[in-house]
Amino acid sequence: MKQIDHRKLGKKLGIFHISEKVGIGLPLWLPKGAIIRKLLMDYLENEQRVAGYDFVATPHLGRLELYKKSGHWDTYRKNMYQPIEIDKEKYILKPMNCPHHIAIYESSVRSYRDLPFRLAEYGTVYRYEQTGELMGLTRTRGFTIDDAHIFLAEDELESELKNVLLLTKKVFAKFDFYDFKVRVGLRGESEKYVGSDESWSKAEKAIKNVMQKSDLKFTEEKSEAAFYGPKLDFLVKDNLGREWQLGTIQVDYNLPERFDLKYTASDGKKQRPVMIHRAPFGSLERFIAILLEHFQGKLPVWLAPVQIAIIPVSEKFESDTKKLANELKPARVVVMNENNTVGKRVLNAKKQMIPYILVYGEKEKISGKFSLAGDKEMKNLTAKQIVEIMIKIIK
């Protein structure tokens, strides 16, 4: 099969648009793209709620002092935008969501009974990228992360890492991502890293222990850690063979120390929590780019922005097909009644990668029975039966 770049697919299928008026590296989601985006978010939100996560929402910017305290300003500044002055106070577009989630943790007194304390968010972040490095959805200046931060007791670390790894594997399996590489990113010799040797050793040991007990092959690579801790990265290739990081799991002893986070242990003493940063999708934009290429634009039926194209054979059936489209909800249906032959409209529906095509004429009007043409043709279905089939697929 011919390999197609996601940028061509995005334009052909009406998924996203890059406007020079808005700014390169700042993709605009078109209606179909917004549907795909929401379906992905809804899927993962449900998985996370079942796994004990609570969802939060945080602003797109924060005080510069917040990012100085976190260490981002000193170690990550080249990837951050310049501060904005508001009422003589400096603010910055957030490059990461973790300081905001830490502030939520700090908003109340925590005890061991609250842990693990799992906060999730689809948080949009902004990072400075050189113009020449920007590419479609895979490298952008603004993107949304399926971010979560877990605050936990140190003796809970390995069990929680195992749970996070299982969730990531489940997400990848959902989208038939089986050919991926796992990289354990370790600290290098650079001065960009913060924290004590002891905390780094404990964090690296926890990640290695969990990976050694898993069924995944992995490599260890120095200088691939975050500045605050080691991490697991899940790497996939695009259609041109370039490797991209999607999901990530990071262990962090250092930000809890920098912010002096505490919880009350069972013996009444104050203890320091450990943090896990994790994102199974990673950048939602990049994940969709890889998805489009992985499926060559033909997304699974549950994820397709349009699932059924109804094609009336003549103008006299237009009102009937519009009524049928309403009857077929919650399936995502479009009536293709443009001024073209039936054959050309069928071809257009196929080019748009719409999974099912329903041609409506006199026979269908009289019988109330319909055929869905797709990878597997289904015949003699009532509207109710089609809805039942689509509900099972959607779920």
TrEMBL record:
Domain of life: Bacteria
Keywords: Aminoacyl-tRNA synthetase, ATP-binding, Ligase, Metal-binding, Nucleotide-binding, Protein biosynthesis, Zinc
PROSITE patterns assigned: AA_TRNA_LIGASE_II
CDD domains xref list: ThrRS_core
UniProt GO molecular function: ATP binding; metal ion binding; threonine-tRNA ligase activity
Family annotation (Pfam families): HGTP_anticodon, tRNA-synt_2b
NCBIfam families: thrS
Entry's family note: Belongs to the class-II aminoacyl-tRNA synthetase family.
Name listed for the protein in its UniProt record: Threonine--tRNA ligase
